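#struct-help
A.M.: can someone run this one for me? Single chain, 430 residues.
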Amino acid sequence: METKKKMTAFLSSNLHRRDFLKASTGLGALTLGFNTLCPPAFHRRALAAPLDFNKKLLFIFLRGGMDGINAVIPRGDSEYNDTNRPTLFVSEAEAIDLGNGFAQLHPDFYEMSDLYESGDLAIVHRVGYSGQSQSHFDSQQYWENGTLDRRLEVGIFNRLISASDHIRKEGFSAAAISSGLPVALRGPSPVPNFVDPVDFRFRGDENSIKKFVGQAGGEYRDLLYDTGVTLNETMTVLRNNNINPETYEPVNGASYSSSSFGQKCKLAAQLFKETDAQILGVNFGGWDTHTNQSFDNLGSQVARAYEALWKDLESQWKDVVIFTMTEFGRTSRENGSLGTDHAEATAMFVAGGGVNGGVYNCDASTWRDGDMFSSSSGRYLRPETDFRSVLAEIFRNHLGDSDDVINVAIPGYDGLAAERPSDYRPLGFI
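D.P.: on it. Structure tokens below:
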């Protein structure tokens, strides 16, 4: 194989969402993806940003924990070999050179190469957090909350919506393209989630619908009213803009996979182009590769999605940032089941028109020989950059948010950065 290939709830745990649906009149079979728990400190603020503000974020959560070591191969580390990874090892000739004399990309991500060569893709290795948990539940919660307090149920992007002057506070500004609302978007600002925009609508007569969206009694009236209004606005936007991935035609030769993940990314592109959406989230599962690990389907789908989004969003690419999140990396040694287990540091892919492309934290100056086993236990790759630092750089340099906003979105960020400055040093990828 050649070295280079063409890469082209209602309110609280006392009343769950399904109970709300049962109690509501005029609302048929749809997922009501709102979390309306709203402490006073997080009430939605009055509209502060101009309606034509165009900065946009798409986060893709790779559920299960991506093996960063095989996705972005540290070729310069002699511990990356067929002894430590007998079946997962990728030879230098098969892998894709990333141009820094140290890192290579797994061949199943080959469709990213044109985007990488354009200078608009940053690959950030060795991302995690101090005291890394190997629990899916804990680590996903930490990444999505932006804090290591697993009791917190307000997501990092919902806090960002509440605090940022660069995100609309009214109308359809954010959504999860998912059957359930991820923690990252839960909170006081009502955020919808849906997979099929055509089927995301009220059922029932007009009077019943008006009653649901305009009338709510009791102590939670204001919260329910906001949720109903946002729900109705979302449906109106989707209907009036004819949002339908089955009829949507991508441009510039963009080709999305027919898989569920590919179609969600296609819908994200349509929403960015034809609505006022600014923050969208997509889940992609299957990365918990304990047995018979392969990137054949996983890596290729991610790479193809990035390639398609890059082409399809060309007209607004300068205003878009797309990035992956995943709860942790995988063990440096292959296990006895031809796979890998839960570990610490992983890699992130960040793309956009304002991105300074290249490889970060995976080069001869930052990665010493043997760092594959640099954790305190001597078993894992140790994180060099806290995931919150990566997100803060996106919020600050892409959205233009202030330190005050970042400290709301990521509670106590300044204190964390002062306590562990090396983990929070800006990388300059935007």
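A.M.: thanks! The domain at 56-198+243-424 is CATH 3.40.720 (Alkaline Phosphatase, subunit A).
D.P.: also worth noting: The chain has one domain: 56-198+243-424.
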